[in-house]
Specification:
Layout lengths: L4 E5 L7 H16 L3 E4 L8 E5 L4 H8 L5 E4 L14 H17 L1 H12 L2 E4 L2 H10 L3 E4 L21 E7 L2 H6 L1 H12 L3 E8 L13 E7 L2 H8 L4 E4 L8 H13 L16 H9 L4 E3 L3 H7 L11 H13 L1 H15 L4 H12 L5
Parallel strand pairs: 1-2, 1-3, 3-4, 4-5, 5-6, 7-8, 7-10, 8-9, 10-11
Helix pairs in contact: 1-14, 2-4, 7-12, 10-13
Amino acid sequence: MEKKTISFCADGDQSLGSYRIPFVWIKEILLSKNFNCVDNIIDSYVDFYFCKGGQNIATKIKKTNKNAIIFLFKPHYEIGLDLNLRYPFKFVYRIIALIYECIFKEKQKKFLSDIYSSEILIADTKKLALFYKTKYDKKVLYLRLLEKIDINTKYDISKKIEKEIIILFHGGIQHYNENFPQLKALLETASRYKFVRFICVSNIEKIQKKISLKNVKSEYYPYDFDTLIKFLKIAHLGYVPNFLRSRIPFLKTIYNYINFKFYQLHLYNITEKNSSNAGRAYLYAVFGIPFLAHPTREIIADFSSIEELEFPNDTEESNYFLKKLISNNDLYSSISNKLLILSNEYSLEKEVEKIIKLLYVYKV
């Protein structure tokens, strides 16, 4: 069978999962499956293009070659509401930028143009997949964006909490900033039971505030995959926030109202991420780390089979579950062991098989 060529055309940073997973990890897997993978080449010999939404690259390719077959990763656009009155100039700038974008939709138009230029839309949540199936006449593929983990790195022994508890956060720093009050409250609760070592692996240059609590040692590291794996091996608990809400009570009330009345404004969702952070939960599961996660559809769908695992909505519920995990070793070990077993069902290699099936559907 003739080897097919895939051109990976996207700008991005490997510290971001939305870039790293499709344009580094998936490319590596496809190379191992005997596909010819190239970077940023637009040419007639290319069979397929993998692009990232909103970068206008898919649009450019389609104008160059109207027969180009384009897979579009992350086709949705999210408005970040990282508002903080402690920085008044930045606050005013972001409010103006938000209003401007809502009126003129310049960024949204780029995403829409890329969507119309693509044949296959890759959605990382079922919510988004259904939205795109309903709205656009496109092939839509739901794909879990999982990290590529070396089989030799995976754990097969459940964990235990002993003298200290290590709590790990990794991922987009915006989630850390927006959920800081809850994170601080959880660490304060944990510190009443054990000495806490809190580890944050993220884009630390954009951190707005650091944790400073009695009986808590806070450590901040710039994102690096090897660094993350090192701490996953020793962590006891993970934190998987998915809500992006303003810390200003009045604005939070307004956003909650809007979110209730208009759950999804086309490509926009003002108070909760459209895309899934479930990838963090899968990664914790690989290492047998119980986690505190907001109840997104993907989290519940893939982890609700573990009856003891809770999915708290707010800080009070999160604190309740945290206390149970810390004070009940049997409960903690049971969840840890079940996560290890369940993690075998999910892998990036299995997800890539979905893409490969589609690649052979299209005869180039």
